[in-house]
Amino acid sequence: MVGIARPETDRDGGQIHPRRASHRCILAASAHNPRSQERSPLLPMIPAVSRRAALGLVGGAAALPLVGADSLGAGPAARADLRVQPARFRIVDGETMGLVSTRPDGPPPVLRLRQNRRFEARVSNGLDDYTAMHWHGLRVPNAMDGVPYLTQFPIAPGERFDYGFTPREAGTYWYHPHCMTMDQMALGLTGVLVVEEAVDPGFDAEVILNLRDFRLHADGGWMDLWTPRGAARGGTFGTVMTANWRRDPVYEAPAGGLVRLRLAATDTARIYRIFLPGADGRVVAVDGHPPRVPPAAPTARRPHALAPGQRLDLAVRVPG
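The structure assignment produced for this chain is given below.
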């Protein structure tokens, strides 16, 4: 289980100060995994030296079950066609209209790239307003960075822009607009981007969570996206905390397996406090890169703070 501390509610209807465990994503153990005979605690197994050392602890490569956020295709893509468009989805009891995504009926998919392999994305604009796309955390040519009037002109309604770059560093990143940024992000246009290692580290499964808020009424209708009071303080917080646009989702993982958990905080205001109740785990990457000195495993007493835009990779041993 991934725990996220519960916030209290402010006068704008948003949720601000963390108090106790509430929002969560549960990893449910499925059938026994024959690749994972080792039952010793995970923490002593992971050296604090490099991503390759940290991730190379589970043996040879194998087909990797991917759960959590939906991916665009089954493996790394050399090309993606992304149409920014209105969307609808049931986040709360009532269906929410007026979302913004790259598909009409769900969140933007996970984009999976391969380290040192060129990637191209054609972004077309199906909105009535301007947009652009920024590849957050990736080192890309300046012309591909997606910042309107600095590296490109905005993508007008009905137009498109072709992006292309070669990712040099593996890790967990994300993508979002840098035009009409706050509105389009608040309406849903944030997606996770994964750059896979050139050599498969051999995890038993992978779970990807896109963490973000929405400002919704119980019937699915929108509240004001931003308030003057929120803007003058720490931001206008959402009323619904989600992972992959869902509240308290449950995903299966192989019993006894070693799971790579990728978390991306794509909200514009929320600071998450992440912990792992009832499971052994180790931080293996922060913002896409292995830390020189890995932080201690996050617990309810000492959670890991994940601020807007940050990413966290955890190696988690699923109870057998």
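Interim note for the steering committee: Residues 181-186 form the longest helix (6 residues). The helical segments are 51-55, 181-186, 228-232.
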